[in-house]
Specification:
Helix content is 49%, strand content 13%. It is α/β, with parallel strands linked by helices. It folds into two domains: 2-137, Rossmann fold (3-Layer(aba) Sandwich), CATH 3.40.50.2300; 150-211, Orthogonal Bundle (Arc Repressor Mutant, subunit A). The protein has a five-stranded parallel beta sheet with strand order 2-1-3-4-5, with helices on both faces. It holds the Pfam family Response_reg. InterPro entries: CheY-like_superfamily, NreC/VraR/RcsB-like_REC, Sig_transdc_resp-reg_C-effctor, Sig_transdc_resp-reg_receiver, Tscrpt_reg_LuxR_C, WalR-like.
Length: 219
């Protein structure tokens, strides 16, 4: 079972998501919270696999709650941020704080359930085009240096290909088809890329690629 904690200051949102997720055979909502501080406490008490975390909440918001959870040792906890706005200025900060990805609150039921499963499997959700818009909006400034980042030299040519596919939001299956390799091989390459870049997951790898100028918005 995938254990899920819901953190949102709107009770109707929590109840609606709980109804959708509890209807799945492989998902169980184990707790809910009305703000970030309560979310941190409930995570410590229930040890869920995935947290659906609203970005904007009174008091301790989702970004700060995410920072506290990562700093508190919950590095492998899946944190899926939820937002009402397709260009929420807080989402990029949430990704930098350690979120595993994000969704709009008005996504179809099937998309919500699939997202929970993706995050629970240890992957990061970077498929939505809106995530690309956010990163392009916030890291489109000039590069600090024209020199390539030293980490890039650590990647093999194939690992660089895989990194570019990840930046484009391609899934493992899609990358495998693009590069004519198996999904198992893709997983191996992705793991190597993350390790060599010193990042936690695919989302952080994408942020790294844009911030270092390895990839330019629109390029």
């Amino acid at each position: 079972m995938i254990r899920v904690l819901l953190a949102d200051d709107q009770e109707l949102v929590r109840d609606g998501f709980a109804m959708i997720l509890d209807a799945q055979d492989d998902v169980e909502v184990v707790a809910s919270a009305a703000d970030g501080a309560e979310a941190v406490e409930r995570v410590q008490a229930t040890i869920p696999d995935v947290v659906l975390m609203d970005v904007r909440m009174p008091g301790v918001d989702g970004i700060e709650a995410t920072r506290r959870l990562r700093a508190g040792g919950f590095e492998r906890l899946g944190i899926l941020m939820l937002t009402t706005f397709d260009l929420d200025e807080y989402v990029y900060e949430a990704l930098r704080a350690g979120a595993s990805g994000f969704l709009l609150k008005d996504v179809p039921r099937a998309t919500l359930v699939d997202a929970v499963r993706v995050i629970a499997a240890g992957d990061a959700l970077f498929a939505p085009a809106i995530t690309r818009k956010l990163i392009e909006r916030y890291v489109a400034g000039p590069r600090v240096s024209d020199a390539p980042p030293p980490e890039l030299a650590e990647l093999s040519e194939r690992e660089r290909d895989v990194l570019l596919c990840v930046v484009r939001g391609r899934s493992n299956a899609e990358i495998a088809a693009d590069l004519y390799v198996s999904e198992a091989t893709v997983k191996t390459h992705v793991a190597a890329v993350l390790r060599k870049l010193g990042v936690r997951d695919r989302v952080q790898a994408v942020v790294w690629a844009y911030e270092t100028g390895v990839v330019r918005p629109g390029g």
